[in-house]
Design a protein that fits this description.
single chain; mainly beta; 4-stranded antiparallel beta sheet; extended
Amino acid sequence: MADIKNYLKEKEKRERMQEDYKEKIARHKLTTLYRFLLMAAILAALVILVIIQYKRHVYTDYETISSIPREIGRGTADVRLGDAILSYSKDGAHCTDAMGNVTWNQTFEIQDVKLAFSGNAVAIGDYNGRNIYVANSEKLLGEIVTTMPIRDVAVSEAGYVAAVLEDTDVTWINTYDTDWELLFKGEAHMNNSGYPMDISLSPNGRLLCVSYVYLDANVLKSNIGFYNFGPVGAERDNRFVSGFDYTDVLIPHVQFMNNETSFAVGDSRLIICSGTQVPIVQEEHMFDREIQSVFSSDRYIGVVFYADNNENKYQINIYEPAASRKKVFYFDMEYTDIFFGKDNFVIYNETECQIITLDGIEKFKGKFSKNVRLMLPAGNTYKYMLITDSSIDMIQLK
């Protein structure tokens, strides 16, 4: 009997010990979990703090990381071509990378150079001539010789080219594929479709947008027309898939932002269209002031006016079509160019620069140490290339 009692006591003791052991393990796991969550919360707070400090950080100067000498001819202009520099004159063009290496060079004789860009592709047309040179930032792609005088050109990032050609009593809009074969030949008559004011190709070359102007019973009218070079367009007459008419509005500029979104700028409105096959008007914005300039990226459109207040000189309305958002900013600097960065926009002229985030924080405002012909982003955040008469300078804000 005593043995049974001792056995039961020992069993009960072992069970209590096991329960205590399990409870200790559970407490240990819970403590470890609490410590992990606490460390994660502290780490997350530090990350958020760093992000906030980064967003609020204001740069007051810059340092020149590298400077590469360059020589330019008289009458040469510099423009951005992707991440490279396109320099051109009436005698030719060449492309230079960030290290100062010339990636291609093309000589020609063009009295009136007509340029079109898409991504890192460029078409160099001879206004009133018959030659179009096509290239990207890495190499020359080819040359198109037309049979009629050139009035306008457009290029897609994929290498398609469109050209407005002047005939005796009709204007032709020819589109060429990447082998420079004629893909589409459209007619434009002033007495019906109108005269093409501007043209733009989608980056993939699938869509062509044309802005026409015409008179209807002595009333000025404009039309935005879209042509589709894919299967959808093959089922439509002349590949015309959609069009929109406007009365008493002149629309001198159309532009694709990406393969889905395009916009048109008139003298009193901004028209944003969307659609990869049959574009439609997504939204319109009316203006009561004269537009001074327009700039864009694959996500944003910036429209510059004189300011609507007495405190500033200029006002920028920035539109984000994908989110149907608009933001308004003000500045006073005289500018030669404005471009979008990843989350900011850059205003500059030959001697100074201002950088403002899309949240409205002024990240930098300062003067250049040299006269700048061209400024472009250099990949890393707040790192830029400054193109001067004698050098290519890589700078980092600090």
